[in-house]
Amino acid sequence: MLENTLPHLEKLIEDIIEKNNLLKSKIVELEQEKSALKDENETLQLEVLESEEKQTQTNTVLTNLLGKLQSVDEPN
């Protein structure tokens, strides 16, 4: 019984070690992916803020132009 159990146990331990190493590699891969996604997210957030700022500026210019147009007396 011990003759069969010991090799089986060794095989299981080797399998566990191999699986652990694969999981460690996957963790590193996922951490790198997470970091890249975080950077991309920050970039997208900055782009949104810049877009909102440009939209606000455009809205202000258009509002001012509309005010000027409305203040002009139309010839009758």
Could you give the topology of this structure?
Blueprint: H1 2-71
Please explain how this structure is put together:
The protein has 76 residues and is an all-alpha fold. It is 92% helix and 0% strand. The chain has 1 helix and no strands. It has one helix at residues 2-71. The protein is rod-shaped. The termini are far apart.
Measured as a percent range, the helix fraction is over 70%
Q: Helical region count?
A: 1
Spans of at least 5 consecutive residues with low confidence: none
Question: Which range does the strand content fall in?
Answer: under 5%
Radius of gyration, in angstroms, nearest whole number: 33 Å
SS-derived structural category: mainly alpha
Order of helices and strands: H
Amino- and carboxy-terminal Cα gap: 112 Å
Give me the oligomer status: single chain
Number of strands: 0
Mean pLDDT: 94
Shape: rod-shaped
Q: Mind summarizing the main beta sheet?
A: none
